């Protein structure tokens, strides 16, 4: 069995299918780890959701910020943005089945790697202050809210940039919001682990006193697999942890990238998008 981790698909269904063909992916024997953002901005978000869901247990995906946005629009009363390409999903006859499936996805996947270290996949990364086990537990707090009777109410209140710093004493929506923001929106942080939400470009856009989250040391040697940050182009310059950046900007004209978790080999297909 081979496990491949794939970065942000974002509605680029044709490229996703081409990449699976390049990998000679066999769902009977192989597994996919998908780093979130299956939908939005690209031309075929509905087809992407249907494709991944059809793969059953051979596809493991975490929720990204665009996936959560779809759920917030559909079930939390949040309005569509001008650039969203989600209308086909919202109008689909199998809409509710697809949304139920998406809402039941985790925010973090953790398993023992080839060595002693954990492989941990989230959409945006992991705070250096959180161990993999702690992060898994915190992600579970959000997942229980999403999958509970008050999931719609949570989605309605999920958005916000405050509080920007993690504190174990946080409770209620403040606690859940920080967990969501770390796991799905994080790029630059300061030494305390406070998030900046303004800078979204490359490393040169870092605000004073902030650095990419992967440039801070950790107390473990987990391999951290993430997407979200297309401007990195799959690189992690200055990393002080074992980090694998997989968002190579397919929806922006870059490529869609897969990582063989056993060998470290990367396989990509060029984008068909014109931007």
Automatic annotation (TrEMBL):
Membrane-spanning intervals of the chain: none
Keywords noted in UniProt: Hydrolase
Pfam families cross-referenced by the UniProt entry: Metallophos
GO MF annotation list: bis(5'-nucleosyl)-tetraphosphatase (symmetrical) activity
CDD domains: MPP_ApaH (cd07422)
InterPro entries in UniProt: ApaH (IPR004617), Calcineurin-like_PHP (IPR004843), Metallo-depent_PP-like (IPR029052)
Lineage top rank: taxon: Bacteria
Enzyme Commission number(s) from the entry: 3.6.1.41
Keyword Metal-binding on entry: no
The Calcineurin-like phosphoesterase domain, residue ranges: 1-126
Reactions accelerated catalytically: P(1),P(4)-bis(5'-adenosyl) tetraphosphate + H2O = 2 ADP + 2 H(+)
Family indicated by similarity: Belongs to the Ap4A hydrolase family.
Function: Hydrolyzes diadenosine 5',5'''-P1,P4-tetraphosphate to yield ADP.
PANTHER family referenced in this protein's UniProt entry, alphabetically: CYTOCHROME C5, PTHR40942
Protein name, as recorded: bis(5'-nucleosyl)-tetraphosphatase (symmetrical)
Highest classification ranks of the organism: Bacteria, Pseudomonadati, Pseudomonadota, Gammaproteobacteria, Oceanospirillales
């Amino acid at each position: 069995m081979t496990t491949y981790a794939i970065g942000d698909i974002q509605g680029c269904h044709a490229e996703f299918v081409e990449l699976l063909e390049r990998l000679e992916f066999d769902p009977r024997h192989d597994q996919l780890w998908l780093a979130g953002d299956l939908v939005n901005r690209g031309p075929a978000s509905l087809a992407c959701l249907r494709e991944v869901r059809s793969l059953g247990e051979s596809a493991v995906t975490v929720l990204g910020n665009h996936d959560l946005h779809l759920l917030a629009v559909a079930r939390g009363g949040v309005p569509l943005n001008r650039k969203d390409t989600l209308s086909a999903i919202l109008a689909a006859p199998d809409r509710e089945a697809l949304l139920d499936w998406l809402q039941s996805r985790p925010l973090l996947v953790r398993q023992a790697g080839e060595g002693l270290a954990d492989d941990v996949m989230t959409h945006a990364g992991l705070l250096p202050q959180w161990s993999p086990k702690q992060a898994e537990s915190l992600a579970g707090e959000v997942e229980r809210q999403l999958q509970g009777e008050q999931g719609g109410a949570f989605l309605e209140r999920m958005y916000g940039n405050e509080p920007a710093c993690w504190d174990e004493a946080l409770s209620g929506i403040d606690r859940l919001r920080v967990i969501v923001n770390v796991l799905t929106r994080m790029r630059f942080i300061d030494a305390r682990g406070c998030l900046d939400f303004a800078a979204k470009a490359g490393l040169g856009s870092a605000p004073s006193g902030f650095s990419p989250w992967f440039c801070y040391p950790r107390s473990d040697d987990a391999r951290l697999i993430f997407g979200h940050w297309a401007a990195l182009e799959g690189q992690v310059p200055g990393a002080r942890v074992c980090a694998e950046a997989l968002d190579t900007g397919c929806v922006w004209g870059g490529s869609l990238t897969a990582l063989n978790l056993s060998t470290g080999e990367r396989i990509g297909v060029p984008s068909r998008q014109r931007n």
